[in-house]
């Protein structure tokens, strides 16, 4: 019997700190700013990471309800890269992204210019495991090392009965079946996080940089998280990566962490982020985190995505400014994080991180 990827969340996860940030005592619980997220009207448009799609649905449904239908919020799940582009172009008021803004190609500078020269607001909103899901008849559980995963997605291991796979699965009846690696065909923050994991944990087997575009030809590509999940489910011999909260009944690989094999879970994702560090030399309004992939603690699961919301501190239109502030305030609140955990299976932000995010969101319009 296949064991579906776990979607439940142990409440104590919320107590884990994403990183050590001093916060005022008044903000220690990261509570909801009810005044900011009510009394809103008009429209608000965002776009970006497909990983956030279900969480965004929970968030905008709640905030629209708080405002008695006077506010219409839309979120177009077009992928992190396109979402960031639309934000920079001014086509949307905020964006969701699975990778933080960088200036490798001038993106951070362009976002700052879009925001009138002010530092961009970039706060974590959504923490989730990336499941490496598979569809192999007769195989209910599967253990893989990072090196084996890298060689599968690089096309170097091509059959499910390969010796490298068999070595970590001595009790499995591995079939003589072609492996079909499934990747995102569109630019994706999930791809960037997945390739970041492979590059950091299996550098001898994965010779590529972390990128939004999957760097290897071959295999099968699918658009968006839902496309990847559907293709894996319909293809015998398939293996692919997707946000664990959206993989449904597909079964996930347990990856090697220290001396054990660990399945994806909200708890494991939160434990990885808890031992990660903030990116150096960022603005006070920027909470970008360098995820620690090389964890040895088997309570942590290192194949994760930490997804952000990006926005401006000020907007020319007062209504737009109030709507962005109110919506983001709800997203990082205890209530908003709880809604996402219940509906999308994510790991809530820690109390300290939520409090710091609220402090930053409060700068909108100030």
From TrEMBL:
CDD domains reported for this sequence: PBP2_PstS (cd13565)
Name of the gene this protein is made from: pstS
Top-level lineage group: Bacteria
Pfam families noted in UniProt: PBP_like_2
Protein's UniProt keywords contain Transport: yes
GO molecular function, one term: phosphate ion binding
Ranges for domain PBP: 36-335
Biological processes, Gene Ontology terms: phosphate ion transmembrane transport
PROSITE patterns (alphabetical): PROKAR_LIPOPROTEIN
Record carries keyword Iron: no
Protein name: Phosphate-binding protein
UniProt similarity note: Belongs to the PstS family.
Gene Ontology cellular-component terms listed: ATP-binding cassette (ABC) transporter complex
Organism: Nocardioides humilatus
């Amino acid at each position: 019997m296949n064991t579906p990827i776990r979607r439940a969340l142990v409440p104590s996860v919320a107590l884990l700190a994403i990183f050590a940030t001093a916060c005022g005592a008044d903000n220690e619980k990261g509570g909801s700013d009810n005044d900011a997220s009510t009394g809103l009207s008009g429209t608000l448009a965002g776009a970006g990471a497909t990983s956030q799609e279900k969480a965004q649905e929970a968030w905008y449904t709640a905030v629209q309800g708080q405002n008695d239908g006077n506010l219409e919020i839309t979120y177009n799940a077009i992928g992190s890269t396109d979402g960031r582009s639309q934000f920079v172009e001014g086509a949307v008021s905020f964006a969701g992204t699975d990778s933080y803004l960088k200036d490798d190609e001038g993106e951070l500078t362009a976002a700052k210019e879009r925001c009138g020269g002010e530092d961009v607001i970039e706060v974590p909103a959504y923490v989730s495991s990336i499941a490496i899901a598979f569809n192999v008849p007769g195989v209910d559980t599967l253990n893989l090392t990072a090196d084996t995963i890298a060689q599968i997605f690089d096309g170097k291991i091509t059959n499910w009965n390969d010796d490298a796979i068999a070595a970590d699965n001595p009790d499995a009846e591995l079939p003589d079946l072609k492996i079909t690696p499934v990747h995102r065909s569109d630019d994706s923050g999930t791809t960037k996080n997945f390739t970041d994991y492979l590059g950091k944990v299996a550098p001898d087997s994965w010779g590529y940089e972390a990128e939004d575009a999957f760097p290897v030809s071959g295999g099968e590509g699918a658009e968006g998280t839902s496309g990847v999940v559907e293709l894996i489910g319909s293809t015998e011999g398939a293996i692919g990566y997707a946000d664990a909260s959206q993989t449904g009944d597909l079964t996930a690989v347990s990856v090697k962490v220290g001396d054990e094999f660990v399945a994806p879970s909200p708890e494991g994702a939160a434990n990885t982020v808890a031992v990660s560090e903030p990116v150096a030399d960022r603005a006070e309004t920027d909470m970008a985190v360098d995820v620690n992939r090389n964890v040895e603690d088997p309570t942590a699961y290192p194949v994760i995505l930490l997804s952000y919301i990006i926005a401006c501190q000020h907007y020319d239109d007062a209504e737009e400014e109030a709507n962005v502030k109110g919506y983001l305030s709800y997203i990082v609140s205890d209530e908003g994080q709880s809604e996402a955990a219940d509906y999308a299976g994510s790991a809530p932000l820690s109390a300290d991180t939520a409090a710091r995010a609220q402090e930053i969101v409060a700068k909108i319009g100030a």
